[in-house]
Amino acid sequence: MIMRCVRVWKTVYCFFGLYLFLFSGEVAAERLSLSEGLKIVAENSRLIMISREDEKIADAERQAVFSRLLPSVSASAAWTASAHQPAALFGLQTVAVAERNFLSYSFSVQQTLFDFQGKASRYNASLAALSARRFESQRTRNLAAMEFVLAYLDLLETEKMVSTSEKEVEALEAHSRKAQSLFEEGVITRNDLLQAGVKISDARQRLLTVSTLKRLHASRLNSILLRPLKAEVSVQDIGEQPDAGFSPVSVETAWNLAEQQRPELRIADETLRALGFEETAKRAEYFPELFVKGGYDYTENRFQLHEGNWSVTFGLSMNFFPGGLTGSEIRKLDFQRQKLAMQRAKLLDDIYLEVEQYLLQSVTARERLHVTGDSIQQAEENLRISRVKYEEGVGTGADVLDAVTLLASARTNYFKALYDLRKFEAALYYATGKD
């Protein structure tokens, strides 16, 4: 009997677990947090992956340039078959000087000794280009993170707006039911009942609008996370404490942070360094290149005293007249440096303006949040008083409807200020170059 009961309970337990697995997936599903989403974006974003490939390309270019600093090693081998055996005439006598069919091979190593920093400068330019590419990858990561954070906050904000609209519709419907009861009792006129119906219709339209906007923001977030657009997404709220985000700083401090950390400025600096090294490398073409070459040559020839021979050569090479090409390329590089320097100055001004804009907007949003902090409770109390007056016949239905609208407006203003503050804080993080 006891064993039978145990088997029955095991069966019930298994079916219960299967039920939870099949039908309670939404309950057990975890809500996506901001940090988890940022991790997914950092690992799977297509923009970041493309930027990483560009970084690998720049590193491969660096390795290619570095190979020019190393010795050049070459080897060759050949087998020659002649129609006639090579020979020479000495008076009336013919003397063979080489084999008719013979094997030959050679091996040589050549190394540049000094070229007035030409190849070294090109390598330094490739290092600067690689550094600029890494800063570009950092900028891309920040852009992808910024896009995700804004989409995340937009979804949170629309969720609050949907909740606010739903509460407004519920309050209006409750008032409509009360008005219908009073109308049937002959306490109020039909006009009050019609006003409630019109207000409910307007509130339901707003609810449909924000619900559609919520679905669009959810699809946008899924797109950023490389998920199906129609997939269900549930996000965690980041809290409503106004001091939980970016701590206020002065404009001068924010400017200094941006000038030191903003990847765009670092990219411009590294590009300027690369152009400077490229110009040095080009100027080196005006001077000779000193090199040393050593090798071994073998030619199969029994008529020759030494078939194989070692050699070493010290030499100079120089292009005396390239047709003005070097000078033109140097002037081109100089113009590029001047242009980039002006672009950097303009970029710095734009960054200063961007930082100041987001800083002032975050301060304004924080003040708005402080102003609207108590408005919700005041609006709720106003609605309660209006309902009591209406039920006692002292107030009017219009007062109740206005109170419901005022409460919805207070909630909307509060959440708008809250998430505006979060967005401007995130924008200020990006504007000051924080990773």
Give an overview in words.
There is one protein chain. The protein is an alpha+beta fold and 435 residues long. 67% of the residues lie in helices and 12% in strands. The chain starts with a helix and ends with a helix. Residues 1-29 have low confidence and may be disordered.
Describe the protein's topology.
Layout: H1 2-23, H2 25-28, H3 34-44, H4 46-66, E1 72-81, E2 87-90, E3 93-96, E4 101-114, H5 118-184, H6 190-224, H7 251-261, H8 263-283, E5 289-299, E6 308-317, H9 325-371, H10 375-391, H11 397-431
Antiparallel strand pairs: 1-4, 2-3, 4-5, 5-6
Keywords, please?
single chain; 435 residues; alpha+beta; four-stranded antiparallel beta sheet; two-stranded antiparallel sheet; 11 helices; disordered N terminus
Summarize the structure.
With 435 residues, the chain is an alpha+beta fold. The protein has helices at 2-23, 25-28, 34-44, 46-66, 118-184, 190-224, 251-261, 263-283, 325-371, 375-391, 397-431, and strands spanning 72-81, 87-90, 93-96, 101-114, 289-299, 308-317.
Question: Roughly how much helix do the residues carry, as a percent range?
Answer: 55-70%
* Strand order, largest beta sheet: 1-4-5-6
Assign an overall shape: elongated
The major pleated sheet works out as:
4 strands, antiparallel
Detail the poorly predicted runs. Answer: 1-29
Secondary-structure element pattern, one letter each: HHHHEEEEHHHHEEHHH
